[in-house]
Write a structure and sequence with these properties.
The strands form 2 sheets. A 5-stranded parallel beta sheet has the order 2-6-1-7-8, sandwiched between helices. Strands 3-4-5 form a 3-stranded antiparallel beta sheet, with helices on one face. It has helices at about 15-25, 30-45, 50-60, 85-95, 100-115, 125-130, 140-155, 155-175, 195-210; strands at about 1-5, 25-30, 65, 70-75, 75, 115-120, 135-140, 185-190. The protein is α/β, with parallel strands linked by helices.
């Protein structure tokens, strides 16, 4: 079973999904971290992030799993390493390849079928698990999304806002698994809400639908 939380960068997906998972006793699944893990493995093996064929082969070979809030690559935790600037840049390039996305979607579906997850990403409710009993699409004002990311990264807000706008366009216009609100998804604007308020709202919805 999965609660699917989608939305653009900076909308609060990670923080909220972790909170909902803790509230309901589910496992947190970060789909973005999976693409980062592929990027890390590619960099370590000297594979060009633009080589879709080799990346696809690599993605099918990797063992990617989650233990509570921690992601493991081939049996080893890699959470800190996948957040480096180099991996962040590479992950954006790696994730556009259909071969990589197909491998990760398959792995995500296998994980979801094996337990109870709160999964967040940009295509969980539309591609990975469109039959989810609870789909949520988080949004927020672009300036607020940029402010949040700037707090985390230490970068100037204006630069982060430009990067977010560019990322939004790439995500919405890509041919494979574009970012969009899933049919039946509950839309929650997080601009003026605290993370705890969003978590409480989603956990309430889950319990009302017999999910939590």
């Amino acid at each position: 079973m999965v609660i699917a939380i989608d939305g653009p960068a900076g909308a609060g997906k990670s923080t909220v999904a972790k909170g909902v998972a803790r509230a309901l006793g589910f496992t947190y699944l970060d789909s973005g971290a999976m693409y980062r893990a592929v990027a890390l493995a590619a960099l370590e093996r000297g594979i060009d992030p633009d080589d879709g064929e080799r990346l696809g082969e690599l993605a099918w070979e990797l063992d990617i799993n989650f233990d509570r809030d921690s992601i493991h690559l081939d049996g080893k935790p890699v959470e800190g390493r996948i957040r480096s600037p180099e991996v962040t840049v590479a992950a954006s390039r790696v994730s556009v390849h259909p071969q990589v996305r197909q491998a990760m979607v398959k792995r995500q579906r296998e994980l979801i079928a094996s337990g109870n997850y709160v999964a967040e990403g940009r295509d969980i409710g539309t591609v990975v698990s469109p039959e989810s009993p609870l789909k949520v699409f988080l949004t927020a004002d672009e300036q607020e999304r940029a402010r949040r990311r700037a707090v985390d990264s230490g970068e100037p807000v204006d630069e982060v806002r430009q990067a977010i706008g560019d990322r939004d366009r790439r995500d919405q216009e890509r041919a494979d698994s574009p970012l969009r609100r899933a049919p039946g998804a509950v839309n929650i604007d997080t601009t003026d809400l605290t993370p705890d308020e969003v978590v409480e709202e989603i956990a309430k919805l889950a319990r009302e639908r017999g999910v939590g």
